[in-house]
Amino acid sequence: MALPAAALRRYLLLLAQEHLEFRLPEITSLLSLCGGQFSGEQEIRVNSPFWILNIPSEEMAKGLMKRTVCAKSIFELWGHGRSAGELYASLKNYPTDKMLPYLQSDSTYKIHIHTFNKTLTQAQKIKKIDALEFLPFKGKVNLKNPEHIFWILEDYGMNPNDVPEEPIHLYFGRWVHGQRELIESYSVKKRHFIGNTSMDACLSFIMANHARVKPNDVVYDPFVGTGGLLISSAHFGAYVCGTDIDYNTIHGLGKASRKNQKWRGPDENIKANLRQYGLEKYYLDALVADSSRPIWRKGMLFDAIITDPPYGIREAPRRMGSQKETVKSVERSTENHFFVSSSYHLSDIFFDLLKFAAEHLVMGGRLVYWLPIYRPEYTEEIIPRHPCLKLISNCEQMLSSHTSRRLITMEKVKEFKDQDENSYFLDGQYMPYRGHNSFREKYFSGVTKRIAKEEKDNQK
Predict the structure, then answer these.
(1) Which domain range does residue 399 map to?
(2) How far apart are CA 184 and CA 109, in angstroms?
(3) Nearest in space to 317 (alpha carbons), one of 355, 358, 347
(4) Which positions ≥6 away from 190 have C-beta within 8 Å?
(5) Does residue 455 or residue 369 have the better pLDDT?
(6) What CA–CA distance (Å, rounded) separates 293 from 418?
(7) Which of 219, 234, 361, 412 is most buried as measured by Cβ atoms within 10 A of its Cβ?
(8) C-alpha separations of 8 from 34, 159, 171, 209 in Å
């Protein structure tokens, strides 16, 4: 049950200026986990680095910051305004009893100034700090190791070519928490076991946050590869498992993906990756399986499905074939292991994925996956749909001038019935997306044209 607005406390979020499209869905998903919400008194400027949130407690605000990779810091907001006068008036109206615990005579503090889209001189900064002398600070200033840090944050707009003389919005608050260590500590460069398509650590955590992964969830990746998406979910306390059609990858065999390394080592596998981060206890298993032929019993098994299906750029989409299809498709995976693979159309991959999610997600569970797009032909109508799944968010990441991939988040809102088995054939939704079966050809066609243009330009 949502808390009344009076029971919520105001916080200011300072966001990173990267992955802009992913920020709002990530923060919205995390707020829904902690019982917070956006402040009704602000207009959400999606690209702005400053958002005001209402959160039940400081503990929950810290919990949000421990998870997000789209934000830098969070502050207990004491005042804000569109001018210095409005800011000072807002601060004077802030309850003194909420300030006093951080302004005691036996405490130490410092005031930091952060400006967005403008650089101030040291003299300008000192002048702004001195203007806050009306606040009842009783402690001593300590610039190296203070107990409490207060921030003045000024927003000079989004246009670097038209910076106003005065800020368009000012904020003052007490620093509560900040972290950007997740991305660095889980960097793929330092990871024990990687493949050609291992997911960037930042995006992996964004996907887990969009899926609202929480402790004791069961998370599944049907195209698990080297398990990069399992790591972020396990970090948040979820039990993880996956399947993949590639026998060598699941068992950590064959050629290595790292430069100057020919073959994978004896302990290069998914389980070793989780062990590297102290997450082995959350690892259930990874199986060799074909996503077009699910191996799972019927019923709701997973709290979240998070995946990056192959779409033919670095890895070919495949599924199990039959001996009749073609002798040429036989592949050797190990000394004594053979299988027959056939092509797996993109449209079939995504509709099989949606059907599987509709059947095997718990109610309220989320499916988060990447959808490749040829931008000149993109419309929202080509996003695969299912009557049991509601579209929550749709964020674009550019791959080239003409191609991108979109991070799709869907939530299960309806119980799966037998009549939903082939629902993707309804309403003409299946046919529009079939055009993207040629995504690989369109991608490389664009690359070829770009190279030809560059060569022509160089000859001039």
Answers:
(1) 184-320+339-429
(2) 29
(3) 347
(4) none
(5) 369
(6) 17
(7) 219
(8) 11, 33, 19, 22
Domain contains 455:
no
Residue 231 and residue 279 in contact, taking contact as beta carbons nearer than 8 Å: yes
DSSP secondary structure code for residue 22 in this structure: H
Average pLDDT rounded to a whole number, residues 8-30: 95
**Domain count for the chain:** 2
Same structural domain, 238 and 140: no
344-359 average pLDDT score? 87
End position of a domain, from candidates 179, 204, 236: 179
In the chain, the amino acid numbered 181 is E
Burial of residue 234 (CB within 10 Å: 0-12, 13-18, 19+) is buried
Q: How far is CA 331 from CA 222, 336, 342, in A?
A: 21, 11, 10
Token pair 């400006």 is found at 115
Q: Which residue has the tokens 């620093």?
A: 175
- Is 116 a member of any domain? yes
The Cα 57–Cα 75 span in angstroms is 12
The tens digit of pLDDT for each residue in 212-237 reads: 999 999 999 999 998 999 999 999 99
Q: Which region among 79-88, 118-127, 178-187, 398-407 has the lowest average model confidence (pLDDT)?
A: 178-187
Report the C-alpha gap between 282 and 233 in whole angstroms.
9
Contact (CB, 8 A) for 314 and 355: no
Non-local (6+) Cβ contacts of 243 within 8 A are 221, 222, 223, 224, 286, 287, 288, 289, 291, 295
How deeply is 269 buried, as exposed, middle or buried, from its count of CB atoms within 10 A (0-12, 13-18, 19+)? buried
Q: Are 368 and 263 part of one and the same domain?
A: yes
Q: How far apart are CA 440 and CA 93, in angstroms?
A: 60
Instruction: List Cα–Cα distances, 198 to 204, 353, 358, in angstroms.
Output: 10, 20, 26
CATH number at residue 21: 3.30.2130.30
CA distance 58 to 76: 8
Q: Residue 289: what residue type?
A: A
Give the pTM: 0.86
Whether the CB-CB separation of 80 and 171 falls below 8 Å is answered with yes
Q: Which residue has the tokens 């095997």?
A: 360
In 24-70, DSSP assigns E strands to 37-38, 50-55
Q: In degrees, to the nearest 5, what angle opens at C-alpha 332 toward C-alphas 329 and 338?
A: 85
- How far apart are the C-alpha atoms of 125 and 34, rounded to whole Å? 36
